[in-house]
UniProtKB/TrEMBL annotation:
<comment type="similarity">
    <text>Belongs to the TonB-dependent receptor family.</text>
</comment>
<keyword id="KW-0798">TonB box</keyword>
<feature type="region of interest" description="Disordered">
    <location>
        <begin position="39"/>
        <end position="61"/>
    </location>
</feature>
<keyword id="KW-0812">Transmembrane</keyword>
<keyword id="KW-0998">Cell outer membrane</keyword>
<feature type="domain" description="TonB-dependent receptor plug">
    <location>
        <begin position="75"/>
        <end position="182"/>
    </location>
</feature>
<dbReference type="GO" id="GO:0009279">
    <property type="term" value="C:cell outer membrane"/>
</dbReference>
<dbReference type="InterPro" id="IPR037066">
    <property type="entry name" value="Plug_dom_sf"/>
</dbReference>
<dbReference type="InterPro" id="IPR000531">
    <property type="entry name" value="Beta-barrel_TonB"/>
</dbReference>
<dbReference type="InterPro" id="IPR010917">
    <property type="entry name" value="TonB_rcpt_CS"/>
</dbReference>
<feature type="short sequence motif" description="TonB C-terminal box">
    <location>
        <begin position="699"/>
        <end position="716"/>
    </location>
</feature>
<dbReference type="Pfam" id="PF00593">
    <property type="entry name" value="TonB_dep_Rec_b-barrel"/>
</dbReference>
<dbReference type="InterPro" id="IPR039426">
    <property type="entry name" value="TonB-dep_rcpt-like"/>
</dbReference>
<feature type="signal peptide">
    <location>
        <begin position="1"/>
        <end position="25"/>
    </location>
</feature>
<keyword id="KW-0813">Transport</keyword>
<feature type="compositionally biased region" description="Low complexity">
    <location>
        <begin position="41"/>
        <end position="55"/>
    </location>
</feature>
<dbReference type="GO" id="GO:0044718">
    <property type="term" value="P:siderophore transmembrane transport"/>
</dbReference>
Length: 716
């Protein structure tokens, strides 16, 4: 039986399982658990309360209000987080780190420019570039390429209205079942925008200047929004200049009561110079320098991406049906060790139904979905001659396809206790054809791999009070290798390596809630992983893509915790507030009886990451928020655990004022002590065995030094 009929059979069985309950009763009801806003990670404006903000009271069929978005996230049986983008308006938000740094369990560090490391529960832990093991979505629609790979250049923090983080198997609501889960970035519509018109300009250190404009209107059944951002920055390091132009737009139309269609459009232009990695000595002594090979090869990443997507939503007698379609065109010119020249399309369709109904007098919440998406990518490579194409070295075609069916059900067998069950079945194919350097070359390489499986989930949710939840669940995840894993470069040629899919069982338990002045969000988890996709850099200094292997057994376990306390209220008798937030992410990721690495820690991510935020806010709009980012011990640079980078602490201050007329001023000062530290690492197998020893290993990205950014924003 071939893969498509097989997954179709699995899908039919799954849909039958979840579709039998609605026929028992069809009473309309809310599609999520009402849960008051819980701010636990310092993400909210200092001292902010729970009063409605602009854009919260409205919504539409295709994109619900912020309050309903938040409630839907908090209804998840498992560890999740919700960030209202209104809470980060007072920051210089250049990357997703500036948006997600207050979310426990999310490890996000800058490498350079817009390039970051984003990892949840050790997803893509050893990969020193881009994204793996985590699904990135915009408005619930995938941004990843069809093979699962992705980067961050399409996400403009100034074009977001909210960010939803679904850790691990909790991303099943979108059909994602990777180890890391999913991050859904939601753009504003004219119904949810903070204001009809927003103008913003900010800038500061490293010759940074950025302009942003947003304009939206509602006219009868139609509405539209346009958001544009232009960023120019020389960057902290030599050869790190960033030039980006992002445009996001959406147009909605109410076809009939309860029926709406919305088109999402976007174009994203990025020209990012790459400074490369340094030795540990150079990273601490000359952190603003670039790797000599990055300069001689004029290493850079030029990306042109166009995206069109549509969501058509229908409110039914029971629940709501969303039908998503999308197409993404991406062109990449990427001179590194060679010139990587790629052009490809990704396209897909995904119907999704969610509803609430009664079963024998008990409340039942259900989600059903299908996803079919595919893509082709022409992958050419050339000798790099100072950033220009030289002789061709590869002429390949990469094709990926995915067929998925998923469902999730919450059955409230008691008024405050729900049983959650769910599953996803999938079939994914990866096909690679390389004709060699010249089109007429007889050296044709072909690779084909198909991955199939079923990922179940079961859990319990207890909600003793409206603002308190306790949960526990067990989920199965599978990470299918992407082409960066499957297509590996050695000294002789490019080769297709048929790796196994990474599989894991994850157990988690936690609680989130608020009692008076105290709010919390705490989860503990353990993932037993088989065939983990582990990367190591062959030569970090030359930016040669990492090699990947399957580690037989590994374990990922940790703690994701955030606690916020309003320490003082009415400090001056005027309704002002002093609050303190503590965010702690504990990572214990290690091999298990590995034939090479024993029980060593998996390199790349530190054991503990802590962030403390103290905040003061006055009713007149003034706020002051110092914070400390603390890594007590740095990460290992190699899987052999022979070299660990030092820990560090960074002192930051944010301050500003929001005037009643919609004008806001802010200052965002970072690393005020100008501390020298390692922000990220291109992991190797054994630093001590590197040619020249660990001192010669150029595998380290120095963190940015002292910087100050300021801006003005007008909303009217």
């Amino acid at each position: 039986m071939d893969s498509v009929p097989r997954v179709a059979l699995h899908a039919a069985l799954l849909l039958t399982l979840f579709a039998t309950t609605p026929v028992l009763a069809q009473s309309a009801g809310p599609t999520s658990i009402p849960l008051d806003e819980i701010t636990v990670g310092g993400a909210a404006p200092p001292g902010a309360g729970t009063s409605p903000r602009p854009g919260e009271a409205a919504g539409s069929v295709t994109v619900p209000s912020i309050a309903r978005q938040r409630a839907a996230v908090n209804a998840t049986v498992g560890s999740v987080a919700f960030v209202d983008a209104a809470d980060v308006q007072s920051r210089y938000a250049n990357t997703l780190r500036d948006v997600l740094k207050d979310v426990p369990g999310v490890y996000v560090q800058e490498r350079y420019g817009q390039e970051i490391r984003l990892s949840v529960r050790g997803s893509g832990i050893a990969r020193g570039y881009h994204l793996r093991g985590l699904e990135l979505l915009q408005d619930g629609i995938p941004l990843n390429l069809a093979d699962g790979s992705g980067d961050f250049y399409q996400v403009d923090p100034l074009a977001l209205r909210s960010i939803e983080v679904y850790k691990g198997g909790n991303a099943l609501t979108f059909g994602a079942t990777t180890l890391g889960g999913a991050v859904n970035t939601v753009t504003p519509t004219a119904h949810t925008a903070l204001a009809p018109t927003i103008l913003r300009i900010d800038g500061g250190s490293f010759n940074t200047i950025r302009e942003n404009v947003q304009f939206s209107r509602i006219s009868g059944p139609a509405d539209f929004l346009l958001n544009g951002t232009v960023t120019n920055s020389d960057g902290y390091r030599q050869h790190e200049a960033q030039r980006t132009q992002n445009v996001n737009a959406n147009l909605g139309y109410q076809l009939a009561p309860g029926v709406e269609t919305r088109f999402f459009l976007g174009t994203y232009l990025t020209d990012q110079k790459l400074p490369g990695t340094l030795t540990l000595f150079d990273a601490f002594n000359t952190p603003r320098s670039a790797n000599p090979s990055a300069i001689s090869g004029n290493q850079s990443r030029k990306v042109e991406t166009e995206r069109i997507a549509n969501r058509t939503s229908l409110v039914l007698d029971v629940g709501k049906l969303d039908i998503d379609t999308w197409a993404i065109h991406k062109s990449l010119y990427h001179p590194i060790f060679q010139v990587i020249d790629q052009d490809g399309w990704t396209y897909g369709i995904a119907p999704h139904w969610a509803g609430t109904f009664d079963v024998a007098g008990f409340r039942n919440d259900a989600i059903l979905g299908l996803r079919a998406f595919a893509g082709q990518n022409t992958a050419l490579q050339f000798v790099n001659i100072a950033g220009q194409r030289g002789a061709p070295t590869a002429n390949a075609l990469q094709s990926a396809s995915n067929y998925e069916a998923y469902g999730e059900n919450r059955f409230w067998f008691l008024s405050d206790l729900a049983l959650m069950t769910g599953a996803k079945v999938f079939s994914s194919n990866r096909t690679y054809s390389n004709k060699g350097g010249l089109p007429a070359s007889p050296n044709v390489q072909f690779g084909n791999a198909t991955y199939e499986g079923v990922n179940p989930k079961v859990g319990l949710l207890w909600q003793p009070l409206p603002d308190i939840q306790v949960f526990g669940d067990i989920t199965r995840s599978r990470d299918v290798p992407d082409f960066s894993d499957l297509v590996q470069q050695n000294t002789l040629r490019t080769t297709f390596v048929p790796l196994q899919a990474q599989r894991a069982w994850t157990v988690e338990a936690g609680s989130r809630g608020r009692v008076d002045r105290l709010a919390w969000d705490v989860t503990v988890f353990r993932s037993n992983v088989r065939d983990e996709l582990i990367n190591f850099s062959i030569n970090p200094g030359l930016n040669i893509p990492a090699a990947t292997f399957n580690a037989p057994r590994t374990v990922h376990q940790g703690v994701e915790a955030a606690v916020t306390l309003d320490v003082v209220r009415d400090l001056t008798g005027a309704g002002d507030t002093v609050s303190v937030a503590q965010i702690w992410t504990h990572n214990d990721f290690r091999f298990v009886h590995d034939p090479v690495f024993g029980n060593n820690r998996i390199a790349g991510i530190p054991d503990d990451v802590l962030r403390t935020v103290a905040s003061y806010r006055h009713p007149n709009g003034f706020y002051l928020s110092p914070s400390v980012d603390w890594v007590p011990r740095g990460a290992f640079a190699d899987h052999a655990n022979t070299l660990r980078v030092p820990g560090y602490a960074l002192l930051n201050i944010q301050t500003g004022i929001d005037f009643e007329n919609g004008v806001s001023l802010f200052v965002d000062a970072r690393n005020l002590t100008d501390a020298r530290y390692i922000s990220d690492i291109s992991v190797v197998t054994n630093a001590a065995a590197t040619a020249g020893g660990a001192a010669a290993l150029a595998a380290f990205y120095p963190g940015s030094g002292r910087s100050v950014f300021a801006g003005v924003r007008a909303a009217f």
